[in-house]
Amino acid sequence: MPEIRIARTADDLAGVVTLLRSYLAWHRVRHASHRDMIDRYFGDQDFEDELARLPGDFSPPQGRLLLATVAGQPAGTVALRDLGGGTSEMKRLFVASNFQGQGVGRYLLQRLVADASAIGYESIRLDTGPLQYEAHRLYERAGFCRISPYGTHDHALRDWLFFMELKLRRHGMEPSVPAGRAMA
């Protein structure tokens, strides 16, 4: 079972950076036939700038940058940022390949939803690629529903991506995270 905490220390942030570079590499393999969309979505320099500024937009009190570890090793990460008007956005959910299938992504999502609710957000939005089948199932099981495109993506990306939202107050979603395993 993973331990989940807010990434605060230099070591935590280094672990997140390593995971996020693996995340980008994974996208380039999974979406190899859509490399133009991946390059457009991430923009190499924009992504590197985001990594250099971490936690950046994901800083508390309104944001979160979570790190999951298993046996002390970085296993997964996810981030939350404020979109305004009671809406938050989940970004960068990723689990390292050697930790996939162990529930790490589910625990990260549960913790992020609990944190978003505690912060006072009314909803969590996300965008995801069309070939991220495992993520789609995870989000649907958690109560996320497809919505119309939002944000500042260009027209081609808006047509290519899937957009989803979880209404926190409507669903009363307060997932439980095993005691002693999730750390602030």
Give a concise summary.
With 184 residues, the chain is of the alpha+beta class. It has one domain (3-171): Aminopeptidase. It is built from seven helices and seven strands.
Please tag this protein with its features.
184 residues; single chain; Aminopeptidase; globular; seven-stranded mixed beta sheet; alpha+beta; 7 strands; 7 helices
Low-confidence runs: 171-184
Quickly name the level 1 CATH class: Alpha Beta
Largest sheet: 7 strands, mixed
**Average pLDDT:** 91
Straight-line N-to-C gap: 16 Å
The CATH homologous superfamily is called Gcn5-related N-acetyltransferase (GNAT)
Tell me the CATH topology: Aminopeptidase
Number of strands: 7
Give a description of the structure.
The chain is of the alpha+beta class and 184 residues long. It has one domain: Aminopeptidase (3-Layer(aba) Sandwich). Helix content is 40%, strand content 25%. The protein is built from 7 helices and 7 strands, in the order βαααβββαβαβαβα. The chain has a 7-stranded mixed β-sheet, with helices on both faces. The longest helix has 21 residues. It is globular and about 40 Å long. It starts with a strand and ends in a 13-residue tail after the last helix. The C terminus is likely disordered.
Write the layout of secondary structure elements.
Elements: E1 3-6, H1 10-30, H2 35-42, H3 44-53, E2 64-70, E3 73-84, E4 87-95, H4 104-119, E5 123-128, H5 133-141, E6 145-146, H6 155-160, E7 162-167, H7 168-171
Parallel strand pairs: 4-5
Antiparallel strand pairs: 1-2, 2-3, 3-4, 5-7, 6-7
